[in-house]
């Protein structure tokens, strides 16, 4: 199989320190633009399964969304918010993933290739805090729309709700989200490096050669599985806090009791329905969605490491 000529991209990346960030950002945003409309129904399925964990399986969740949310359009509630979130995340996420390890290596006077685990740990914590702060408001809107009980005026309901307590409402779920991001990015980047190192060792792949084909796909799958089972409890708690919280009383739409939406009540509510298993509701869907996302990231990181080597 003929190899793709990447000499032009390599020259572009090496010609300026900012070009690696530009290339990473464009690749990530293009991926999000194409993939998010396909992945959004699975995200909707996962979120609704997490807040309706009395449903037995994914087929019941599909039936619930279809009958209660207006047919097929119910699977696409919150698409615009999700698409905005994914493109925005990609615009900075992949430049940070490609640039921060090398930035930290330079700052500490070491070589990235010699200290990948440490540089990736610093990178994961930086991205986690950055991403949680930037994305929580969009995530709050997305989950609110995905779990809506009504078929109309959901944007209006959301913005009316946040008028009086904007900061508290739009950052609802921030604490579990930042914990989730810290765990997610740390586990993901360390697992990615670990599985790639094991693959190189098993098949005698030199450090200066790319891992390709099924070997890279296997790294992506193992990284995805490791990450998903590490973050699912945080993800379920976050979804509980961010779900639709408007109900109808005496013909008027009003907020639910605010005391229901605390981390303590989220943990108690989830545990009461299914015990420990409740924190892993939706894991099959989550693995499927995460595999698409992590596979792209695993491939991109391997490609960038190869293209940017000696940069």
UniProtKB/TrEMBL annotation:
<dbReference type="Pfam" id="PF00153">
    <property type="entry name" value="Mito_carr"/>
</dbReference>
<dbReference type="InterPro" id="IPR049563">
    <property type="entry name" value="TXTP-like"/>
</dbReference>
<feature type="repeat" description="Solcar">
    <location>
        <begin position="211"/>
        <end position="307"/>
    </location>
</feature>
<dbReference type="GO" id="GO:0071913">
    <property type="term" value="F:citrate secondary active transmembrane transporter activity"/>
</dbReference>
<comment type="similarity">
    <text>Belongs to the mitochondrial carrier (TC 2.A.29) family.</text>
</comment>
<keyword id="KW-0813">Transport</keyword>
<dbReference type="GO" id="GO:0006843">
    <property type="term" value="P:mitochondrial citrate transmembrane transport"/>
</dbReference>
<keyword id="KW-0472">Membrane</keyword>
<dbReference type="InterPro" id="IPR018108">
    <property type="entry name" value="MCP_transmembrane"/>
</dbReference>
<keyword id="KW-1133">Transmembrane helix</keyword>
<feature type="repeat" description="Solcar">
    <location>
        <begin position="19"/>
        <end position="103"/>
    </location>
</feature>
<dbReference type="InterPro" id="IPR023395">
    <property type="entry name" value="MCP_dom_sf"/>
</dbReference>
<keyword id="KW-0812">Transmembrane</keyword>
<keyword id="KW-0496">Mitochondrion</keyword>
<keyword id="KW-0677">Repeat</keyword>
<dbReference type="GO" id="GO:0031966">
    <property type="term" value="C:mitochondrial membrane"/>
</dbReference>
<protein>
    <recommendedName>
        <fullName>Mitochondrial carrier protein</fullName>
    </recommendedName>
</protein>
